[in-house]
Structure formats: C-alpha cells, structure tokens
Amino acid sequence: MGDCFELELEKGIEDAISRTRFAPHSNNLLISSWDSSLRLYDVDASVLRLEAPSQDPLLDCCFQNDVVAFSAASDGLIRRYDLHSGLVDTVGSHDDMATCIGYSNETCQLVTSGFDKKLVLWDMHMENASSCLRNLDAEVDSMSVCGFNLIISIGASVHVYDLRNFDKPVQSKEAFNGTHLRCVSSIPSAEGFAAGSVDGRVSLQITYPSSSNDIGYIFRCSPKSKDGGRHYSVSVNDIAFSPLVCGAFATGDNEGYVSIWDAGSKRRLVELPKYPNSVASLSYNHVGQLLAVASSHTYQEASEM
C-alpha cells in the first residue's frame, strides 16, 4: 500500500483545512484553508514553497498542472495561481459562496459550483475563460472530476455528467435511500464512484472496462465496537482512491479515523492511529506511495495535517 506520510507544519494553519491535493506529477501538496490562504508544500523537502493570502476563506482547491492551481472562495471568486511566480488572477465568480472545484485534463475545463445553485464549466483553452452554466435545484455538496466524468452529490443523490455533453446527467441515483451524502470520489482506471454518507456508510459503484468483475455494494465504515468506544454513525468526510493498487481506497471520518480498504475483497486493510480531530481531507500522491491526511476542526481551527 506504500507509506503513510505525516507532515508536521512548522508554520501553523490558523483555521480549518478545507482541502488537500497532491500535484499531478510531483510530491508538492496544495492546501486550502478557512484562514484565507492557499499554500503549496514541497513534501520531499518539508518546505513551504508558496503562501498566497486572500480576503476570504478558501473552500476548495485543485491543480491544473504542476505549475498552475485554482481555488474556490467564500466571496464567490474563482482564482488562478501561477505557483512559480506567485501571480494570482481571477477566472470568474459565482453569485454566492464558491464551494467546489475540479479540473479535467481531457477537456481543459475547470468545473465549479456554489451556494448560488450553479454548476459552471470554464474553458481554460483561452486566456479569458469562457463559461458554460447549468442551473441546479440545490447546492452541490461534493464534487469529483476524473477524465471526461464529473460526479456531484446533492443531498442524498449522486449525479454523473459527461463533460463532452453537459445537457443532462448520464446517471442519477440515490446512494442510501434518503441519507444525506458527505462526499463523492471518482475512480482512476474505472467507471463509477464511491459516496460517503453522514451516517458512516460508503456506497461503491465500480465498472472496470476490461473486466466483467463489476462492484456494487454498501458497507459501514465504523461498526459498533465491543467496548462502546466508537460511534456507530460517524460521517465519512472524504474518500481517496489509490493510483498504485487497483480497488484500494482510503476513507476519513468525523471521529479522526482513516481506514484503507480493498473494494474487491470487501476488507479493511489498514486502520491508522486515531487523529485528534476529524479528518477533513485525504489525497494520494501521483504514484500512490504517500497519503496526505488533513486532521482539522471542521470550519473552526486546524491543528495538524
């Protein structure tokens, strides 16, 4: 499964961590936070390479490539960062808080959503990005972009879009019969998704193009312990799939536990020692040998990653 890498931050983040993302081709780690700063850490050297402050909390971030990144902020602005020069410009904005962001290399599109109930595709082929707008009935709670697929969760439902045809979802379904979803994650080298609920369950829907061994089931991450020390229903805050081991993925919950699972055998492979705060975000590096775990008071203050 590779190593689990723990990074103590010398310069503490002053508020809750909203997202961690490893770069596409390096061990640089992007971190957005409610303290209004975007940070880039060189994990190999344990050095802070960039800190870009703004006026309002940053609620999500993503890479375009190893030298360009984006953030979504509570003021609605979508910002672009040149990670070498430190220059920052504005791609566009939402009419309310911008909450989710992702990038597709296949289509060169940036995808954003916000409290304005809008889902926006920004064409990054041009310097001044053009946009394609879709109005929704509710706010997007979670988003994941992989290849041509955009996966979003709204309330208890998962919706899958093909970015080449944005007119309507190619798939819509309730994952847990009415239970609110906390996170969704797309799956490298396969079609499908994983969704985590506020009551501690994960739904897997995986289709492998070159195999008939499709996977579809629901399981509970935190079964009731014999000593009563673990809550039975704990929100699954994030899910990250390993690019190294097919079908392996990590879950992080609101009680501070990170578990690594094998989708095919339906087994828990590893459970990491409990973190002092809830797990806000998970990210594997590009070769699947490092796992970044952000342990943070959700929307309050961040203590460590």
UniProtKB/TrEMBL annotation:
Family annotation (InterPro entries):
WD40/YVTN_repeat-like_dom_sf, WD40_repeat_CS, WD40_repeat_dom_sf, WD40_rpt
Entry keyword set: Repeat, WD repeat
PROSITE patterns membership: WD_REPEATS_1 (PS00678), WD_REPEATS_2 (PS50082)
Alphabetical list of Gene3D superfamilies matching this protein? YVTN repeat-like/Quinoprotein amine dehydrogenase
- Which spans of this chain does UniProt mark as WD repeats? 91-124
Q: What are the annotated GO cellular component locations?
A: kinetochore
Superkingdom of origin organism: Eukaryota
- Keyword flag Repeat: yes
Q: What is this protein called?
A: Mitotic checkpoint protein bub3
What organism is recorded for this protein? Sphenostylis stenocarpa
